[in-house]
Specification:
Blueprint (H helix, E strand, L loop, with lengths): L4 E6 L2 E6 L10 H16 L5 E6 L3 E3 L4 H9 L4 H19 L4 E5 L2 E3 L1 H8 L2 E5 L3 E3 L13 H9 L1 H10 L3 E2 H6 L5 E3 L4 H13 L3 H14 L4 H16 L2 H11 L10
Parallel strand pairs: 2-3, 3-5, 4-6, 5-7, 6-8, 7-10
Antiparallel strand pairs: 1-2, 8-9
Helix pairs in contact: 1-3, 3-4, 4-5, 5-6, 9-10
Length: 262
Amino acid sequence: MADVLLIDRNAAVATLTMNRPDSMNSLSLELKQALVDGLAEVAADPEVRAVVLTGTGRGFCVGQDLGEHIELLHAGDEAPLRTVREHYNPIARSLMQMPKPVIAAVNGTAAGAGASFAFACDFRIVSSEAKFLLAFANVGLGLDSGVSWTLQRLAGAGRAMQLALLAQPITAVTAAEYGLVTELRAPGEVLSVAQALAARMAAGPTAAYAAIKQAIHFAASHDLDESLENEDVQQQLAGATLDHRAAVAAFVNKEKPLFLGR
C-alpha cells in the first residue's frame, strides 16, 4: 500500500504531500494520524527551515473521508467523535504554531478540513482551477481545524459567516478577491512556485520568522499592552540569535547576510 503521506526533504525544505489521489486526498484515520506525526516531526527538525503542504492528483484535500466516517458511526465506534480533539486540533496547531514558514500548494479543490488546513498556513499558492468549499454545514457539522479562527482574520467576519453558512464552493479567483490567496498560478506551476518560496524562506532568519508568527497570532486575541509586552519577549529571543548579530554586522559592512537559522 502506498504511503498516505509523503515527506520529501530537499535541503532545508520539507514537502508533505497528502497521497490518496483516488479520493482527492480525503482524510482517513490513517492520513490524519500521519499528518499529526509528520507535522510534529518537521517542526522539531532543526534542519527543516520551511514546509510545503500539498496533495497528489486533482485535489488538495476534500476533508473528512465520509465513507470511512459513516462506517465507523454505524459500527458504534466513537473514533469519529474524538477526531477533532485527537487529529484536527493538533494538525491546525502544528500548521499555525510551526516555528518556521508553512506554504500551502493548493493544487486543486480544498474542502472542509482541507480548506481549513490551507487557511492555517502562512502562505497559499493556489491553482487558478482550484475551488474552496467550507462543506461542514452540508453534512450537519460545525467548523473544525481552526477555520473559525483563521477565516475571519483572512477574509473578515462577514465573509467567514457567508462561506460557512451557505457552504457553497468559490473559485480561486473569488478566493483571491476575498484575501484568501497569496498568489494565483497556472495548475502546473503551483508546487514549483510554492517550493521556490519555501527555499527563499528557508534561507532566511528562521528564529525571527518564528518570533514574527508568534507575535501576530498573539496580538490577534490580546490587547495592546499585552501585545507590546509580548513583542518585547519575542524581540529579546530574536535579538539573542546568531543570525541577528551576523545580519547587523553584514548591514554595517554593506554585505549580504548569511542566515543559519539559529
